[in-house]
Amino acid sequence: MKLLHIDSSILGDNSASRQLSREVVEAWKAADSSVEVVYRDLAADAIAHFSAATLVAAGTPEDMRDAALAFEAKLSAETLEEFLAADAVVIGAPMYNFTVPTQLKAWIDRVAVAGKTFRYTEAGPEGLCGNKKVVLVSTAGGLHAGQPTGAGHEDFLKVFLGFIGVTELEIVRAHGLAYGPEQRTQAIVAAQAQIANELFAAA
Fold first, then answer.
1. What is the rounded distance in angstroms from the CA atom of residue 136 to the CA atom of residue 154?
2. What is the pTM of this model?
3. How far is CA 52 from CA 69, 77, 115, 140, in A?
4. CB-based contacts of 193: which residues, under 8 Å, 6+ apart?
5. Please, what sign has the CA dihedral across residues 193, 195, 201, 203?
6. What is the pLDDT of residues 101-149, one digit of tens each?
7. Which of 13, 36, 85, 194 is most buried per CB count within 10 Å?
8. Residues of 68-105 as b/e, b for ≥16 C-beta within 10 angstroms?
9. R_g over Cα of the chain
10. How far apart are CA 174 and CA 192, in angstroms?
């Protein structure tokens, strides 16, 4: 089984989402020794943002691309194929200014491809990734549930994942991390308990 592990936090070793996404992956590997993990660090190795060059590269025959367009096309193809090859995906997703990090949005823009991860039909859009399991590690400095800011990064990711057909979605949540050391510790311990109790590998 292939598991794609995505981190997007810019905080390095101080990142709660990195810590918890790593613990999800380790728990999965402990339950299933056959898991093959592919790791992508979107902060350390950022994907170029979606641009006009991305579209031009996709519409230009391979033998007519210059070096810049060839790079764009290769980046898009490799990112998409890495996602398509995965049976499961673990995404570390902190909230930055009420939404996902731009690094994670750049990755999403490379995998949201008509004809590959979704398609348009006479009945409307149809997701093509219903065979994948996704674990979303959601972290935030504040407490947003029930607040105007509550429709933030989680809702965006749930809409995107639902659009491409993902129905098996688990959310490991640690919020209120900036409310002081005690609140941070409680949130992380609760998330770790959820990880320990989930049968991710059996899903």
1. 9
2. 0.93
3. 10, 16, 20, 32
4. none
5. positive
6. 999 999 999 999 999 999 999 999 999 999 999 999 999 999 877 677 7
7. 194
8. ebeebbebbeebbebbeebebbbbbbbbbeeebbebbb
9. 18
10. 9
